[in-house]
Amino acid sequence: MLFGPRAHADRLEFSLSIVRVTLAVLVFIHGAFRASQWDPHVTGFGEWLSSLGFPMGLYWAGAVTVYELIGPLFILARRYVTLAALGHICIIGLGMVLVHLPAGWFVVGAGRNGMEYSVLLLAGLIAIAWAYAPRGARA
Q: Could you point out which of 48, 50, 64, 111 has its C-alpha 20 to 30 Å from the C-alpha of 57?
């Protein structure tokens, strides 16, 4: 009871579902917007990745975009949630390091384009990846 009482066990599943569905929708919207305007958003993203030294940047940008459309569907359907979440963790983590970390912490207010939103997404994705991991992986 160091930090107060535990969550009510009968509410945990629904609470986790709220987090899972919200994360899936947010990631899907991000990919859908980029895909809806392939040129310039995916092509520009690919050119930017190539400028950083990623080989075949356009293909990486396309793959990330497609993953942002398909991965959330698995998360929503509660199928391969851990694998889908781990893929998004990698994508968002790399994006955080390459884009948001140099801009600092705050997304708005005391800064611009910072990493606080990415950290929140990562925390939620880690939570659902852990919650849906196969029992043998939870040792």
A: 111
- The pTM of the whole model exceeds 0.85: yes
**Polymer length in residues for the chain:** 139
Domain residue ranges in the chain: 17-133
Task: Return the ∠ at Cα 63 (arms to 42 and 38), rounded to 5°.
Answer: 20
Closest of 87, 66, 112 to residue 23, by C-alpha: 87
CA dihedral 52, 27, 65, 76 (to 10 degrees): 140
Residue keyed to tokens 């994006």 = 95
Q: In this structure, what token pair is assigned to residue 40? A: 């310039």
